[in-house]
Structure formats: C-alpha cells, structure tokens
Amino acid sequence: MKKPRYKITNLKQYNQVLSNRGSLTFWINKKNIQLWNKTKQGNNEK
C-alpha cells in the first residue's frame, strides 16, 4: 500500500518549517550565567 501524497500549497512556509524543526532556544537569566562563570573559574584552580 502506497503512502498518500499531498500537494504543498505554501512552499515558502513549508521550507521555513523544515529548517526550524531542529532548532532549540534557551532563555538563561543573568544570575544563572554569573553562577556558571563562577563555577567555571573555581574548577580551573589546581
């Protein structure tokens, strides 16, 4: 049994969705960035 084929009517939007489907966005506040930087600096001491 063959898969049904659908005609794409809005190719520009379809291409945009395909390119965006693998992207992730992270929102990190300034306090967490500062804590992360302090942690990284603390690990470099030997």
Q: What can you tell me about this protein's structure?
A:
This protein is mainly alpha-helical and 46 residues long. The protein has one domain. The protein has 2 helices and no strands. The chain is elongated and about 60 Å long. The mean pLDDT is 84. This is Mobile element protein.
Structure described in brief:
The protein is mainly alpha-helical and 46 residues long. The protein has helices at 11-20, 30-43.
How much helix, percentage-wise, in residues?
40-55%
Instruction: Let me know the largest β-sheet.
Output: none
Q: Count the E strands.
A: 0
Number of domains: 1
The H-and-E topology, N to C, reads as HH
- How large a portion of the residues is in β-strands, by DSSP E? under 5%
* Number of H/I helices: 2
Uncertain runs: none
Distance linking N and C termini: 65 Å
Overall average pLDDT: 84
The SS-based structural class is mainly alpha
Q: What is the molecular shape?
A: elongated
What is the CA-based Rg, rounded?
Answer: 22 Å
Protein name: Mobile element protein
